[in-house]
Amino acid sequence: MRTQQNVILGIIKLSDTLGMRRSSNKSYSLRPPVADSSVWKTLRSLAPYLWQYKWRVLIALSCLITAKLANVSVPIVFKSMIDNLTNNQLAIALPVTLLMLYGALRFSNSLFTELREIIFARVTQQAVRRIALEVFRHLHALSLRFHLERQTGGVSRDIERGSRSISSLISYTLYSILPTLIEITLVLSILFVKYDSGFVLITLLSLTTYVIFTIKVSNWRIGLRRLVNDTDSAANTRAIDSLLNYETVKYFTNEGYEAERYDAHMRQWEEAATRSQISLSWLNLGQQLIIALGVTAMMWRAASGVVDGRMTIGDLVLVNAFLIQLYMPLSFLGVIYREIRQSLADIERMFDLLRVNREIADAPGAQSLHAKAVTVCFEAVEFSYEPTRQILFGVDFTIPAGHTVAVVGESGSGKSTLARLLYRFYDIDAGRISINDHDLRELTQTSLRAAIAIVPQDTVLFNDSIYYNIQYGRPEASREEVLAAAQAAQLAEFIEVLPDGYETRVGERGLKLSGGEKQRVAIARALLKNPPLLIFDEATSALDSKTEKAIQDSLDNAARGRTTLLIAHRLSTVMNADEILVMDGGRIVERGSHTALLDTKGRYAQMWALQQEDELIK
Fold first, then answer.
1. Do residues 49 and 81 lie in contact, with contact meaning Cβ atoms separated by under 8 Å?
2. Are 316 and 15 in contact (CB under 8 A)?
3. Is 518 helix (H, G, I), strand (E, B) or coil?
């Protein structure tokens, strides 16, 4: 009897070792939930990306189901081997067929699992790439209003976490839950058919208790995990905003202040992350207690059966092996549930970006603008950024094809708003803006913006080379065309003395260049684009007087033959315009040529006199 018990204990230990080695092949992290309505909304959003590869999905699913069938068959073959050994057969008489079958089944499990990974790998990565690209495109399609109000750090972190979680969600939902349920069903069926219903009842009770406990606790943890995400995004936003404004921080010696603000967010994240991790440990502990009780009850019943002679040692090994195989997916299901809920929480925020209203969209049947010469017309245009903040009041003017119209006025008079409206970053509240008698809202945004080049007041460059930033005006342009644009913008001499020449990197947002150098890059970029409509929005505001005079001829040459809107503060840059509009408080208060406006001795004449006095003082 003692010998038989020793054999039983040895076999149990052996099968435990085999099972635990198998279970240690993969590890899974745990995490929490989102509202049920959001779950189905997110899954519905993902479905089209997967259905494109439906045959790969189905083949991969078949491979994994086959792997699970092989996995369940291993303990049955193992039982037969043990029963043969305990029937006083010598080890040398071990059935070779069973041994080969045992090895083949174990290899088949790994074979079909890896085949599933090979077949399904492209589906997952393609889905991640397509969704990330769609979010990226959608962000570029959103209105300027969204981008002025967004927090770049938080948005980038949401996209990063969402993209990373898509792979986990797809893999877990399609190729973990269903196969695990199939394996549990197979094991329960074998236990019911070969033995008595007591084993099935104990197993079902353990499973049900485990699942209910996991879902209840995981749903409670959703608030903790979302708080971790929110505080993490807030800290990241704070860090990026501070680093983007590095010079401002230095100007006011506020490094300590910025560090304190960042650390305040990090302290909130630390507290939330700690609470989340502690709650996770309690969840794991509760799950392991349920499993331990279930395993103990099952082994007590099986051992009693062996002692009573109703079961063989092989049956005990079989039950024990099944327990291990149930233990693995049982733990796996708990992990998967939490991982899926966490992935959904992360993906939900990324899909929320896709649901943001574009605000400015092409009208059905919008036309493309194809013209070498354009006439721009503002007719009684009124516009407000906010309902309580009207910017333009009944603005009327026309820029005939090939003519230059300049707009001057005090800061805040609405000059730069005209450029934003021409680009259709916003839609007007009343009136009409047309190009060649086509309302802007009847044109496609792509063709409209392709016909316009702008030199903005605040030039922002990509963190790349000077050459890249100039060529960005027309990416397909040849090197000769890029160099010619740099020469026309009075930039060539400056670039030639740099050690790396055109390959000199400009730094984040172009911070390695001076304001004047950045504006000359912007001018070169606009000249390279070579559009029928040019907008200069304070294009020489960051240039010294000498450089301004040198580049003014280039600007005049660039504007020659093109329709040009010249927005300026320095009146010396608008003297040659065909018409000058003087704006005040969102209204055009004067208009005419430089000479005519001086003769009227109105607002323009006063501005001219003040600027001439300033020049004399300098």
1. no
2. no
3. helix
pLDDT tens, residue by residue, 413-465: 888 889 889 988 888 899 999 999 899 988 988 888 888 888 887 788 888 89
For residue 589, what pLDDT band results from cuts at 50, 70 and 90? very high
- CATH class, domain 376-617, is alpha beta
d(CA 75, CA 186): 12
Query: How many whole angstroms separate alpha carbon 594 and alpha carbon 601?
Result: 11
Q: Note the Cα 559 to chain centre separation in Å.
A: 40
| φ/ψ (deg, to 5) at 25 | -65, -35
Higher-confidence residue of 517 and 160: namely: 517
Q: Is 435 helix (H, G, I), strand (E, B) or coil?
A: strand
Residues 269 and 232: their CA atoms lie apart, in Å, by 6
Tell me if 461 sits within 8 A of 518, measured CB to CB.
Answer: yes
CB-count exposure of residue 603 (10 Å: 0-12, 13-18, 19+): middle
DSSP state at residue 177: I
DSSP letter at 465 equals: B
Please tell me the distance from the alpha carbon of residue 191 to that of residue 311, in angstroms, as a whole number.
Answer: 12
Decide: helix, strand or coil at residue 34: coil
Q: Which fold has domain 37-354?
A: ABC transporter transmembrane region fold (1.20.1560)
Count of beta carbons in the 10 Å neighbourhood of residue 278: 11
Average pLDDT over residues 382-406: 89
Give 525's Cβ-side CA count (13 Å radius). 26
The strand pair at 389-399 and 376-386 is best described as antiparallel
Rounded Cα distance, 318 and 312, in Å: 10
User: 487-513: per-residue pLDDT in tens?
Assistant: 888 888 888 888 888 898 888 777 788
Domains 37-354 and 376-617 share a fold: no
Query: Taking a C-beta distance cutoff of 8 angstroms, is the pair 569, 397 a contact?
Result: no
Taking the domains of the chain in order of start, what are their residue ranges?
Answer: 37-354, 376-617
How do residues 317-331 score in pLDDT, each as one tens digit?
777 777 777 767 666
